[in-house]
From TrEMBL:
It comes from the Bacteria. It comes from Albidovulum salinarum. Its EC number is 5.4.99.5. Pfam families: CM_2. This is chorismate mutase. Gene3D superfamilies: Chorismate mutase (1.20.59.10). The keyword Isomerase applies. Residues 3-94 form the Chorismate mutase domain. Keywords: Isomerase. It is an enzyme of class 5 (isomerase).
């Protein structure tokens, strides 16, 4: 259903709940890749935080946000928090630099 197709607040809330569920599922999938990275990085001599990669990820999501008409500053703030959480998750396994 598209936002304009929602006739009631119940419709709007149901769609938001559906999207929230999908976002949680995607974040869970992303966390699985973070866990795999924490398994692979030690053998490659890579630290949890790789600043160039952080900035690359942020640039990509900001560009995507702009293309989709979403506030890129909001997306940057959300992704920097997500990235910090991801790095902390990796550091719990492989340690700090």
């Amino acid at each position: 259903m598209k936002p304009a197709d929602c006739a009631t607040m119940a419709d709007v809330r149901a769609e938001i709940d559906r999207i929230d569920g999908a976002l949680v599922a995607l974040l869970t999938e992303r966390a699985g890749y973070i866990d795999r990275a924490s398994e692979l990085k030690p053998a490659l001599g890579l630290p949890a935080r790789i600043d160039d990669r952080v900035e690359d990820v942020v640039a990509k999501v900001k560009a995507r946000a702009m293309a989709e008409g979403l506030d890129p500053e909001l997306v940057e703030a959300l992704w920097r928090r997500l990235i910090d959480w991801s790095i902390a998750r990796e550091e719990a396994v492989i340690g700090r630099d």
